[in-house]
Amino acid sequence: MVSVEELRRGVVDKLAARAPETSICPSDVARELGDENWRELMPAVRAAAAHLAEDGTVVATQGDDVVDAETAKGPIRIRRGPSW
Q1: Rounded mean pLDDT of the chain?
Q2: Which positions are tagged coiled coil (predicted)?
Q3: Which domain CATH number covers 56?
């Protein structure tokens, strides 16, 4: 079982490893931390991103729109937030 803290750290670590203007897909984190059942981690990764967005560490987007990572319908991207 992957802890909430591991999921948050996974999101931050993935973003830190990329250029500042780029984004990640939640599946990038789920695939790294999960096994062949990584898809089961997707809701938890989105919840971790939503928590990180509360303090501005990250933002979740759909196209050019900022969305709530946990409640948005469809695919999202995660990028560095204003408090990165």
Answers
A1: 97
A2: none
A3: 1.10.10.10
